[in-house]
Amino acid sequence: DGRIPAASVERLEQVGAWMAKNGDAIHDTEASPFARLGWGRCTRRMRADGATLFLHVFDWPADGRLVVPGLRSEVVGARLLAGGAELAAERTAAGVELRLPAAAPDPIASVVTLEIRGPLRVEKVLPGPAADGSLALTADLAEIHNPDRGNHAQVEARGGEPNIGYWTDARAWVEWQFTIDRAGAYEAVAEVAAPLAGSRATVIVGEQKQVLEVTAATGDYASYAPIVIGRFTFPAPGRQSLAVRPEPQGWRAINLRAVRLRPLAQ
Fold first, then answer.
1. Contacts of 261 by beta carbon, 8 Å cutoff, 6+ apart
2. pLDDT band at 213 (very low <50, low <70, confident <90, very high)
3. Which 8-state DSSP code applies to residue 20?
4. pTM for the whole thing?
5. Nearest to 6 by CA among 20, 107, 14, 17
6. Which residues on adjacent β-strands are paired with residue 171?
7. Hey, how many other C-beta atoms are within 10 angstroms of the C-beta on 109?
8. CA-based R_g, the chain, Å
9. Counting Cβ atoms within 10 Å, is residue 254 exposed (0-12), middle (13-18) or buried (19+)?
């Protein structure tokens, strides 16, 4: 009958209310200068003398501390976009830490603005271990090496999670730089979706090599299964790298969502 469902009307009203308060974080802005933000996303508006960063915080920190990783610029002001409440900002080794109110001002996404004076400088922050020592090397943190320009291996999103897809060229390979805080042996497991079995790749950590082999199809490019790669030993904590290079013979495209490293008991 042409009528809009009530749920859709309510959703549109919510979006309209959010834009009325936070629209400045959307209009005339550019993409985020950060590779990844665990708590949300960022937009920016550049100026001749600096920039304004709009931090869209989806996961409000329970302890009131929000870290903007890798930000090395001079922050001269921080506030909530809706209401304008001033916030404390402190430069730390990890980046810039903000002190937020206990409760999020918006149930969907609260926006914090940072005023930057001078050049916008953001250092790449390497992924590091969780409290239990494990690491999640996810697709959005990978560096993708394609042999030439064109529609080759790239990060895409399926089911809300990033993955490396369109990996049809066996010359393309991916690499992660990361840090660990404890030496020792780690088990590596890949999360792979593959309509066809048979693909093989070499996984390289320093001089160590293991084989990632798809022995059974997962059904399609959206169905993932864990594949145990093997064990790698890191002789010392600090910066490390892990590369996945396809074996040219018989390579069939796969989607790679992550490689996970778990420390093994010594």
1. 134, 135, 137, 180, 186, 187, 188, 232, 242
2. very high
3. H
4. 0.65
5. 14
6. none
7. 17
8. 22
9. buried
The DSSP secondary structure of 173-228, one letter per residue, reads: EEEEEEEESS-EEEEEEEEEE-SSS--EEEEEETTEEEEEE--S--SSTT--EEEE
Query: Can you tell me the distance from the alpha carbon of 120 to that of 102, in angstroms, rounded to the nearest whole number?
Result: 29
Longest dimension (CA), the chain: 69
Structure token digits, residue 189: 């497991």
> Six-digit token pair at 114?
């940072």
In angstroms, rounded to a whole number, what is the distance separating the alpha carbons of residues 250 and 266? 38
For β-strands 135-138 and 255-263, DSSP reports them as antiparallel
What are the DSSP E strand ranges found in 10-109?
40-47, 50-57, 65-69, 74-80, 88-91, 95-99
Report pLDDT digits (tens) over 132-169: 999 999 988 888 999 876 668 988 876 668 899 999 99
Q: Which amino acid does the sequence have at 251?
A: W
β-partners of residue 40 are 57
Round to whole Å and give the CA distance between 246 and 174. 9
DSSP 49: T
| CA-wise closest residue to 207 among 169, 170, 237, 235 | 235
**CA-closest candidate to residue 33, choices 106, 120, 163, 132:** 120
* Runs of H (alpha helix) within the chain: 6-22
Two tokens, residue 9? 């009307």
Query: What span, in angstroms and rounded, lies between the C-alpha atoms of 156 and 177?
Result: 20
Q: Is the pLDDT of residue 190 over 70?
A: yes
What is the C-alpha to C-alpha distance for residues 193 and 196, in angstroms, rounded to an integer?
9
Neighbours of 193 (CB within 10 A): 22
